[in-house]
Amino acid sequence: MNIGLFGGTFDPIHRGHIALAQAAMEQYKLHRVHFVPANIPPHKQKQPLTPFFHRFAMLALATAQEKSFIPSLLEAPDEPEPHKANPAKPSLVKKGNAKPEAEPPNYTIDTIRRLKQSFKGSDHLFLLIGMDAFADIAKWHEAESLFGECEFIVASRPGYSLADVANALPESLRPRPEVTKPFQKQAAVGDLVLKGATIHVMGNLNQPASATAIREAIAAGKSLGKFLDPAVAEYIKKMGLYK
Fold first, then answer.
1. Contact at 8 Å (CB) between 148 and 23?
2. Distances (CA, A) of 15 to 40, 97, 229
């Protein structure tokens, strides 16, 4: 079974996220996609985020009509009460009068390994990611190990070439400059099968939605039906989010 993992802050989840997952399912014959909202994303630790439960609720609403889309709690925050602990994650222990330990960031490599614990021998994992995020992949925690755990499905963006994709890899996996040079003018679409890394690059999905722009537009009182699932837009309105 081909299984996709799509992580992110999803603050909020929008039609661009859904379009990426649908395109990946169709092109690479994925049987299901796990949407994994991050509790503490490593690259946004100092940025304010909407509380996890709101982001997960919006994700659940946006994926409700597609049975193959699975809202996941793999990176949910730990709860202090034992009966509320997240079974997919080890609990943080408080000893005596000591303050509870701060939760560590959600590293993708750890999430992948937890998810794969439930896999059968024939299951195969694909990590879904946008081009902007992939451009910084070499800076991710245990970046080299990521490519050994799964194949990548990257949603392309205008202005990127296949050479840019190859050159974004961790140095140990990166092809020599003379190998990538011929691809500098070739749009980032197609498959890169390298020693230790397999990357599938999908063409531009023509989905200009940006979570940042959506939050700013909501704060300005603009209508966003074009970019959000109606149920998500209604949830945001009822909860007064992004004001």
1. no
2. 23, 46, 7
DSSP one-letter code for 187:
B
pTM of the predicted protein model: 0.86
**Residues in the chain, total:** 243
Q: Are 227 and 17 in contact (CB under 8 A)?
A: no
Alpha helices, DSSP H, located in the chain: 15-28, 52-62, 108-116, 131-134, 143-149, 162-167, 177-180, 211-219, 230-239
Q: Calculate the alpha carbon distances from 106 to 42, 73, 195 in Å.
A: 6, 12, 27
With CA atoms as reference, report the closest residue to 17 among 69, 52, 54. Answer: 69
Which amino acid, residue 80?
Answer: P
- How far is the C-alpha of 193 from the C-alpha of 191, rounded, in Å? 6
pLDDT tens column, 173-213? 999 888 888 778 778 888 999 999 999 999 877 766 788 88
Alpha carbons 228 and 68: distance in angstroms, whole number: 19
Amino acid at 59: L
Here the tokens at position 98 are: 């000591």
The residue type at 212: T
DSSP 1: -
Which amino acid, 228?
L
For residue 113, which amino acid is it? R
Q: 69 - beta bridge partners?
A: 33
Least confident of 7-21, 166-180, 214-228: 214-228
Q: What one-character DSSP code corresponds to residue 169?
A: S
Taking the C-alpha atoms of residue 103 and residue 40, their distance in angstroms, rounded to an integer, is 8
CATH of segment(s) 2-89+104-208: 3.40.50.620
Structural domain spans, the chain: 2-89+104-208
DSSP 161: B
